[in-house]
Amino acid sequence: MKALLLAAGEGRRLGYHKMLRSIAGRPMIFWTLDSLTAAGFLPNDIIVVIGYNSSKTEGVLKSYDASLNVVKNPDYKNEMFSSIKTGISFVPESCNHVLIALGDQPLVKPETIKAILEKGNPLKVVQPTYNGKRYHPLLIPRSLIEAIRRAPIHFTLKDLMPPPEDRILISVDDEGVALDVDTPDDLQRAEILLKARLKGLT
To answer: What SS3 string covers 101-170?
Structure first.
């Protein structure tokens, strides 16, 4: 099993360098990586797809752990699917499942990721829900991994996903799955929630 962490975007609404924005004194993406490793992924099982300012981003990621698999998406300005295809191209053919996670979701709890992994199914996508809505991270089976490999670059993941009734949906008590840090307000909220969590208040 591999984790595919998408971290290629520019972060225009945050003034660029989104993945390296500081939350509670550390780059945002470090908190996302913490959740993945706490859920059981080894750093060398994590494929991080980068794009904007890739040299700087790669250096910061390697300072987190040199064994991370950092890959560059030359078409990062296109839709997110280009980053998914880039990352999937580095997934071994023998891999049965891939967890697709977003680098700008620093508050996803390790327990949420563990719950998703525990429901791993050879045929179905596993997806968390919060307050009745579907979110990332997603656990995808080999059939969808192969469909992504074959799909044209202009596709989206939505084009390939099975309908919700054919997925395994898990209700989670985790606001982190619903908080993508895209704006300064999001960043401020994430910092408040993270600091409260670190103090054991949430």
So the answer is: EECCCCCCCHHHHHHHHHCCCCCCCEEEEECCEECCCEEEEHHHHHHHHHCCCCCCHHHHCCCHHHCEEE
Banded model confidence at residue 79, pLDDT cuts 50, 70, 90: confident
Q: Tell me what the pLDDT averaged over the chain comes to.
A: 95
**Rounded Cα gap, residues 58 and 129, in angstroms:** 32
Amino acid at 13: R
User: pLDDT digits over 38-69, tens only?
Assistant: 999 999 999 999 999 999 999 999 999 999 99
Contacts of 81 by beta carbon, 8 Å cutoff, 6+ apart = 151, 153, 155, 156, 157
Amino acid at 187: L
* pTM of structure: 0.95
Largest separation between any pair of C-alpha atoms in the chain: 46
In 3D space, the residue among 44, 78, 75 whose CA is nearest the CA of residue 61 turns out to be: 44
User: Do the Cβ atoms of 29 and 65 come closer than 8 Å?
Assistant: no
Q: 77: pLDDT confidence band, cut at 50, 70 and 90?
A: confident
3-state secondary structure 19-73: HHCEECCEEHHHHHHHHHHHCCCCHHHEEEEECCCHHHHHHHHHHHCCCCEEEEC
